[in-house]
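Q: Hi! First time asking for a complex rather than a single chain. Here are the components, and I think there are two in total. Is that enough to go on?
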Amino acid sequence: MEEAYLAAQPAAAAQARVDALAREYHTKLARYLRRMLGDSELALDLTQEVFLAAYRTLQRDPERPLTAGWLYKTATNGAISQLRRRRIVRMLPLEREGDDRSWRIDERSAASLDLQAALAKLPPEQAAAIVLTSYAGYSSGEAAAMLGTTPDAVRQRVCRAMKILRSVMTEYT
Amino acid sequence: MKERCARAEVLAGAIALDEASAAEREEYRNHLATCPSCVRAFGGEREIERVMTRVAHARAAETWEPLPRRRASHAHVIPLRAAAIVLAGAIVFAPQVVAVERMAVVPTYRVVLARQTAPPRPAQRLIVVPSIASTPIPAPARNVAAGAFDEPVAQATAPASNVPIWRRDEAMPAQNETSIPVFSGRADSIVMMQAPADGTTGIEIAVDGHGAPVRCTVTKSSGRPEVDAAVCKAAMSARYAPSQQRR
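A: Yes, that's all I need. Here is the structure of the assembled complex.
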């Protein structure tokens, strides 16, 4: 009886920490994942999973510090494996291909359309590199830690992503 | 030459992220002077900045505050097998789980939340995890509208996993990874609320062609609206076998 009571404590503590993380990062992660996947439903799904993973991790190891980097890393891994699993990359380039469910009218600016069209053409790792850095605001060093690579590799991926974005921009203007 | 162009990519990336030192910018300019193909591919510093402004604008246009879920246009109804875990931060007895029962005629499953043996304390929480999942969801029946749900659901392939169908009065396993029910290797949702947990909720979930839930209907209330709401909320954040009905 007493044991059960004690066993319940870490769960509550883990829950409280996940709550706090979710309050701060839910929107950011969901936006990041929506860019990556081009699908808001899927993005919300994966966002949920990130916090569920955080919850489980904290249950196993309540002392473990979970940072924004950990959350983004988990989200990125989820997004990349999702994209790979689908093979046919379903990053829909907004309204040009008719994905009207994931993006509201006021979000469909030319810049947003261009970015999404470019992301749809990119391999997931390159898409993650440019979205984590210039979109989510992390440095190449921080992004490298999340992606498990070196800062220079991140820069190179950003450069290739930028090249595609540039070609998309000339294509449509 | 190839190596130099690889280096130029790194430099261009650094410029794009505004992380390049003066020396690196100089190095990039020098490379461009000798390499027309890099000029064509990436452009000079101004051009890189122009392209990256696009990303900044896209980011500024982002207004999505993702809480409500969107609804899809086509849907069919599948029965949900849901289990709920009562996780109490301050309950003396180990909480008990939960029966998943299929009701006879109506395509509905019961969610039975465990009865508590000790009086609840005020700060307890209820976590509902839809366990679509103790066995894999079968492909949805074609003639759903005709109510063809009487075929045994469990004839879908046997669960690979360690996730048992819990029985009432069986003590819940420790809250570790294996105790969270999953569907295709994924657990589905956590919903939190403050509520005493006791009762049965019958629900129906409508699912669209992507497997996203569209609508949750409570077909039998547990008598506690907050529990019904939590079950539905959890069910709505799960993913299901996609509808195979055409629009």
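A: DSSP finds five helices and ten strands in chain B. Let me know if you'd like any chain examined more closely.
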